Structure formats: structure tokens, C-alpha cells
Amino acid sequence: MKSSKHAKGFWLSIVLAVIFSIVMQFLISGGTLNPFYVNTLFSIGINIILAVSLHLIIGITGQFSIGHAGFLAVGAYMSAIVTMKLALPFPVAILAAGMAAAVAGLVIGIPTLRLRGDYLAIATLGFGEIMRIVFLNIDYVGGASGMTVTHLTTWPWVIACVLMTIIVIVNFTNSTHGRACLSIRENEIAADAMGINTTYYKVMAFVIGAFFAGVAGALHAHNFYIIQPGNFGFLKSFDILILVVIGGLGSMSGSVFAAILLTIISTYLSNYPELRMVIYSLVLVVMMLFRPQGLMGTKEITAFLKMGKSAKGGSHDDGKHTTA
């Protein structure tokens, strides 16, 4: 019964998101939203995909990865090659970007996910830097000067990829595989002792997270007209990590809200380049001081909706009480 109510709340959120996306599409098509706001919407969508995909790796499986920008780079360059070099349709480019990033996640995940904690963080950071240097030295994709890409990212593609990412990761988390990943997060030694193949599930979560980071890379590449290796440095990985931490480790709703909030803050602070990073950093410091568990902690938005309903029901229970 509890899971059924949780599922209803989740699908209600999806329906509301679809309605919101339709309204936004009408506003974009009618020219009500200027290009600045449209680009901000696209950036929010891309950051939501990145935050939710990293949430699966860090928040659900408990693996401290700071190489997510490497998967973003793989997806961006693969999609650019598919559309610009091979002249294939954009949907094929998105799928190819996700698959390429997933393969990269598998290749890097099998040897490194036997590591834990700081050692895993260093290994994934090294992977991200390797990807940046590799693309920096390949003339086929423009090298240091970057690669020019046609603008193909549209609002329907962004919102479709966002909803697909959320639905897949929520269903994975609620499955037996997701429960295994949660047990690894809580106590990897105990999970291993109970017969859970910890390496298998860590690699699985890593590959799924990498796939959606690659999808975000395809949307990113075809939104900003040009991609350069410098856009995918380790600082980009930390930007994505901040979204997950600020939202609350273990809360996908928190990752979504943090992606929306911090993207808007960062966008509007671009008018003050001298103070942008100072103000942005102060916001993060204040957040960590007064809300160290993040915006949502480990809770989801459906839990708050359920609390509201139970509080409302508690005041109209016709005096029917039970005693322990």
C-alpha cells in the first residue's frame, strides 16, 4: 500500500512535468520567451540529467566519483562526430553518445570500482583528465580549438531526455538491483557477506550513470555550437558533484531542485563576472553551515506530499484513536 502511494505521487509529478513542458513549448514557439530564458531552460534540463545520473553513483551506490565530466565529454564529442562527420540524425547521435559513455564507464569501472573512498575519487578524477587530454590532441575533432556543432537541441528533446533519465533511475532504485546498490552504500562489507556481488552492482550503477551523462553531453554539444576540451575539465566534475551534495545525498528530488536553483543563480550572476564566483561560493558555504544535509536530506518530494496528507487526515479522524 505504501509503495502504491509512493508510485502514485511519483507519476503525478511526471504528469505535472509533462504539462509544464507543453506550456513551455507553447511559450517558446510563440516567441514569449526570449533566447536567454530558453537557453537557461536548456541548461537546467542538462544539469538535471547530470545531477540525477551522478546521484545514482554517489547517492544510491555510495561511490565517490569525480570524473563525471569525462563521460559528459565522451557523449558530447561522439554526438558531434555522428551529426557533423557522419551526417546522421540527432536521435542517433543522442543514442550513440549514451552508448559511448556507457562503454567508457564499463572500461573505467571494472578496474577502478574495486577501490573505495579517496582512492576511487582519485582514479575517476584521473579518468576525466585523460579524456580531456585525449580530445585535446585529436585533430579529427578539432584539437584545442574545438569542434563546431550545429544547433539541434530543442526543448522537446531536452524534456524527453530529462523525464527518461528520472523514470529509468527511479525504477532502477526501486528494483531489487537498486536495493542491492543501497545495501552497498550502507555497508559494503555486510552486503558482500550476504552474497551480493558488490563489484557487479557498482559497475552497473556506474554504467547507467555514465550513459545518461553521455546523453547530457549530446544535448550540451548541440546547444552551445562549439565544444572544446577545456569545457570538460575537473572543475566541471566538481560543479556536477556540488549539485548532488547541495540537493542531499540520497535524494533524487534534492538533486533536481539543486540543479534548478544553482543553474538559475549561476546564470543571473553572469552579469557580475568579477563577483560571480565569490557570491556563488558564499551561497554554498552558507548552505553547508545551516543545512549540511542538503536541501532534501535523504527524503523525496513524495514523502513531503504524504506528510501533508497524513497531517490533514489526522485532524479529521472523528476521534477514533487507539492506544499502545
From TrEMBL:
Compartments where found: Cell membrane
CDD domains: TM_PBP1_LivM_like
Keyword Cell membrane: yes
Main location: membrane
Presence of keyword Coiled coil: no
Transmembrane segment boundaries: 9-30, 36-58, 65-84, 90-110, 117-135, 155-173, 203-228, 240-265, 277-296
Membrane topology: Multi-pass membrane protein
Pfam families xref list: BPD_transp_2 (PF02653)
Keywords carried by this UniProt record: Cell membrane, Membrane, Transmembrane, Transmembrane helix
Name by which UniProt lists this protein: ABC transporter
UniProt lineage: Bacteria, Bacillati, Bacillota, Bacilli, Bacillales
